[in-house]
Design brief:
Beta Polymerase, domain 2, 9 helices, flat
Length: about 280
C-alpha cells in the first residue's frame, strides 16, 4: 500500500477523486500554514498547562471527594467502588508527535469534506490546546461496571460546586473499547505562536473504566496506534474472519469481557442486597 487513499467530494456537479495525503506529507505541507507549534514550544506550554491544572481546586480536592464517594456507592462495603485504596490520578501529557497525529486525524482522516475544512473548523495553532481534549489526562479504575457512570455523575456535581465546566459521556468502539470519559475545563495561560501570552480553556480528561477493561486497553493500545493515522478509505473487514489475528482476538475479547462484567455486576448487587438485609444471597 502507498499509504494514500481517495475521498469523494462534489464539485461542479460531478464527483471528484481527492487524494488524501499521509500524516507526514500533510504536516510537512501545512504546519506553517496552520501555525502549528514546534516541539519545544509545545512542551513548554504543556508544562504550564500541567502546573495550572495540578494546582487548581479540582485536583487539589479530588482525593477527598473520591474518598466520600466510596460510602455513597455502598455504605455496606465501601471498598466495592475502587478497592481498599483511593486511586491516585497520575497525569499523562500528550507527546508532541501524538498531538500532531491527532491534528492530522481531525483535519484529514475523519474530514469527509477534505480538502475543505471540517464542520468544526481546522485544528491549528490558535486552538490546538483547547481542541485536543486529551492533551492532559489520567485514569480512574473502578471494580464494577456501574462504577464509571456513578463516578462521572458525582464528579460533575463536584465540578458544579467549584464553578468548573464539566462534561462526560460513554465511549464505546467496535474494537471492544468500553469506558467513560470525563472532562473538567480549566482556564490556562500559555504562550501563543508569536510569543505573546493568552488564556484559553483546556480540558483535563479522566478516563473512568473498570479493572477488566483497563487490562484490555493497556494490552491492545499498541495494536491500533499505526492504523489510526492511515487515510480512511473503504473499510477492510476481513480481520473479522481471521480468528488467529491479534485484532480479532482483542476486539471480541473486549466485547465478551463487557458482557461478563454485566454478569459479575448482577451477582455483586445480589450479594450486597442480601448483606444489607442480613441474609445470605439466594443459592
Amino acid at each position: 500500500m502507498s499509504g494514500k487513499d481517495t475521498a469523494e467530494t462534489v464539485g461542479q456537479g460531478r464527483l471528484l477523486a481527492v487524494q488524501k495525503p499521509t500524516c507526514e506529507e500533510y504536516l510537512a505541507q501545512h504546519s506553517a500554514e496552520l501555525c502549528l507549534p514546534a516541539s519545544k514550544s509545545y512542551e513548554l506550554n504543556l508544562n504550564l498547562i500541567q502546573k495550572a491544572i495540578s494546582d487548581g481546586p479540582f485536583l487539589r480536592g479530588l482525593g477527598t471527594r473520591l474518598l466520600l464517594l466510596r460510602n455513597e456507592y455502598s455504605a455496606v462495603r465501601p471498598n466495592l467502588l475502587f478497592g481498599h485504596k483511593i486511586p491516585d490520578l497520575d497525569l499523562l501529557l500528550k507527546p508532541f508527535g501524538s498531538a500532531m497525529e491527532k491534528v492530522y486525524r481531525h483535519n484529514v482522516v475523519f474530514n469527509k469534506a477534505f480538502p475543505a475544512q471540517p464542520k468544526e473548523g481546522w485544528i491549528d495553532g490558535t486552538n490546538l490546546y483547547s481542541r485536543l481534549n486529551d492533551i492532559i489526562r489520567g485514569t480512574i479504575v473502578c471494580k464494577y461496571l456501574d462504577g464509571p457512570p456513578f463516578v462521572c455523575g458525582k464528579l460533575k456535581t463536584y465540578g458544579d460546586e467549584l464553578g468548573i465546566a464539566c462534561r462526560f459521556y460513554p465511549m464505546n468502539t467496535e474494537r471492544g473499547y468500553h469506558s467513560w470519559h470525563f472532562y473538567a475545563s480549566h482556564n490556562v495561560e500559555f504562550f501563543d505562536d508569536k510569543g505573546g501570552v493568552q488564556m484559553k480553556p483546556v480540558e483535563l480528561e479522566i478516563q473512568i473504566t473498570t479493572q477488566l477493561a483497563d487490562v484490555m486497553t493497556t494490552l491492545t493500545h499498541e495494536l491500533y496506534k499505526g492504523e489510526r493515522v492511515l487515510p480512511k478509505g473503504q473499510g477492510d473487514d476481513t480481520w473479522k474472519w481471521s480468528p488467529d489475528s491479534p485484532r480479532f482476538r482483542s476486539t471480541y475479547t473486549g466485547h465478551t469481557l463487557h458482557l461478563v462484567e454485566s454478569i459479575i455486576l448482577a451477582l455483586k448487587n445480589e450479594v450486597v442486597a442480601a448483606q444489607a438485609e442480613g441474609k445470605e444471597p439466594k443459592k
